[in-house]
Amino acid sequence: MSKPEIDDENFVSKEINIADYNCKIPDYFLSLHKVKKLVSTNVLLGFQRLSDGDENLEIKETFNPARRQTPYLPCTQVSGEGIFVNFNFQKIDDWIGNNKEFIERSNKLKKNSKSDYLKTYHDLNFHPGYILIHTFSHLLMLQLSLECGYSLTDLKEKLYFSPDHKMAGILIYTASSDSQGSLGGLVRMIEPKYFENTFINLINNSYVCSNDPICLESNGQGYAGLDLAGCHACSMVPDLACDTFPKNVFLDRMTLIGKSNNLNGYFNGV
Fold first, then answer.
1. I need a labelling partner for 59 at 20 to 30 A (CA). Which of 75, 103, 133, 200 fits?
2. Are strands 5-7 and 11-16 parallel, antiparallel or unpaired?
């Protein structure tokens, strides 16, 4: 559950009255929030090299930056700003219940994933609701980069999804060491007069890809075939902006727009 207002040293957030929005936005989202300040901390814990032919993923080499028992690790910490979009999870659940075909589409991704020896993702990533909010997040970043002047390399996403906790939300934020991280241009985009147009433009643009109909009708593309209707021409963003690993996977524009095979996308009523 998101809080209406938070004001502490490292995080400042305020909810905007959902009734101030039109364009059916209250039908799809529970709340929208300004994140006027956040602090992003990245810590280097280490890395591992894995073999590519071993079913048990034998570890060939392990690196730990703390070579001795030291009480610290190398990290970077920067301040930024962002917007938080809290989806209506119950509506997502009802949408999936009325469109079972999306479960079949997620099963295609599960089948494709068998060819990936890394398998660094979880069953939750195949949930149609997760694919929906991840695709929306990428398209929102692409639209924001056009409308508020931020480059895609300066925007990042954080996904919050849990059927057990009835949670589905995305945080789009900038955490840059230069002035782009705190100019206020991103925060204002969640205000009704800006977000309404951004939202409508996002949905309209999601109908079009220069690789259609190949992209829209794909049964698996991108890394290990873990994308359906999502490619570099429509839904993918720079790796640093994406929250998943591997990057740019579990994308499907069909979850937003439907458009074929009698599939009703989540935003079909827009």
1. 75
2. antiparallel
